[in-house]
Specification:
407 residues, alpha+beta
Length: 407
């Protein structure tokens, strides 16, 4: 059996590299190999970019946005400490902390800007610290101090130590707002809408701003697996003795993840079609090879080569084109995946413009992460399509009548 496979493989190589092949046939064969290589390269690089965006979403964006939140239906939580302990006891929870969130507006002269004011426990490590000047965090302990995003600061022309008027809803919403004067002690730069909408202060400052004597409005929770946030929120809400609003990142910012998955799906469809077109060239190559090698086929059948072996010869020939294209494509895809961030960085320096606007997106460069499973999937898919493309020409060559082939 092994000897027969070696024989048919050697015949396939001879047919593929025969000197008597026409230039046009060689061009079609090379184009099929190049098409498969190009499709695999683009496929692997595209999936790596999608993996990079997914990682940035989980590791960067969701470090600042809570995975889930247990929020009081109105006012403050009745038993925040008990709820905090229940959350920390859950096996999926890695961090939980009390917060006070409220909608507010910043007034600077005649300009008003809506913000989300986040009162946080400054004695605990916070993700926002990584995007601040070192001196800004201790300054947040001062009364009436606030940290704002760079988008807000740019819009209103604010700098550190400037004083701003913060308006929060009163008993009649914003028709009769409560007005407090606060000092900007820090400006963070994170990227995206966060810079234009978020502001941070201490829990004590938030209580004073909202005229709260004590308590918190919500418990913010971070989980091990971000995709279990909805399930964990449901379980914590079910175990709680008070009514709660259960919120999670998939509800508030899930569109970002869905956009990534949609682009990934479109990429699968488009690039599979690219591979299919390249594999059709294999069909053309083999059909033309069958026509050119009629006498060779007839001679081989006459000296004892069986029909099944003749089919194997042309399957091997098409697979050799596909295998070479896959090897080149995998090598190109791996190299391109590692080079993409540097290429786009060089392009940004050359043109002086950013590929991704930092004030719109939460990342200002193209991330990429190569996953070996993606490489294996792309290689196997391309090889499978190459084999499928050989079946009809190989079947046709195996079913040629010997007399017809020798005429």
């Amino acid at each position: 059996m092994l000897r027969q496979l070696r024989l048919t493989w050697a015949l396939a190589r001879r047919f593929r590299a025969g000197r008597e092949r026409s230039g046009f046939l060689s061009f079609i064969s090379a184009s099929s190999t190049f098409g498969i290589a190009l499709g695999c390269t683009a496929f692997i690089a595209g999936l790596s970019v999608m993996n990079g965006f997914a990682d940035v979403l989980q590791q960067r964006f969701l470090s600042l946005v809570p995975h889930l939140e247990l929020r009081a239906v109105s006012g403050t939580l009745a038993q925040p400490q008990q709820l905090l302990q229940q959350a920390l006891a859950h096996p999926q929870v890695v961090q939980a902390q009390p917060v006070i969130r409220s909608q507010a507006m910043i007034q600077q002269g005649t300009r008003f800007t809506p913000i989300q004011m986040n009162g946080i426990a400054i004695e605990q490590p916070q993700a926002i610290q990584a995007y601040l000047a070192e001196a800004a965090w201790p300054a947040l302990q001062q009364p009436q101090s606030v940290i704002i995003g760079s988008g807000i600061a740019k819009l209103l022309g604010l700098a550190v130590n400037d004083r701003i008027n913060v308006l929060v809803a009163g008993s009649d919403n914003f028709r009769q707002p409560q007005r407090k004067t606060m000092t900007v002690v820090g400006i963070f730069h994170f990227g995206g809408t966060v810079d234009h909408y978020f502001a941070y202060t201490s829990l004590d400052n938030a209580r004073e701003l909202l005229s709260m004597s004590s308590g918190v409005s919500a418990i913010e929770v971070q989980v091990r697996d971000v995709f279990t946030a909805q399930q964990v929120a449901t379980e914590l809400g079910r175990d709680s003795s008070e009514y709660l609003y259960l919120d999670h990142w998939m509800r508030s910012h899930g569109h970002l993840y869905r956009d990534i998955q949609l682009v990934r799906l479109i990429m699968y469809v488009v690039l599979v079609l690219v591979l299919a077109v390249a594999c059709f060239n294999i069909v053309s190559t083999l059909i033309m090879t069958v026509q050119e090698k009629l006498r060779h086929i007839g001679i081989l059948r006459t000296i004892g080569l069986r029909r099944a072996q003749m089919i194997q010869v042309f399957v091997w020939q098409g697979l050799q084109n596909g295998l070479l294209g896959v090897l080149l494509g995998v090598a190109g895809g791996v190299l391109l995946s590692h080079a993409i961030p540097h290429l786009f960085g060089w392009l940004q320096q050359l043109t002086g413009s950013s590929v991704l606007a930092a004030d719109v997106y939460f990342v200002d460069s193209i991330p990429a992460r190569l996953v070996i499973n993606d490489v294996i999937f792309v290689a196997l898919a391309a090889l499978f399509m190459s084999v499928v493309a050989t079946l009809y020409p190989a079947w046709r060559a195996g079913n040629l009548a010997v007399i017809e082939a020798l005429e």
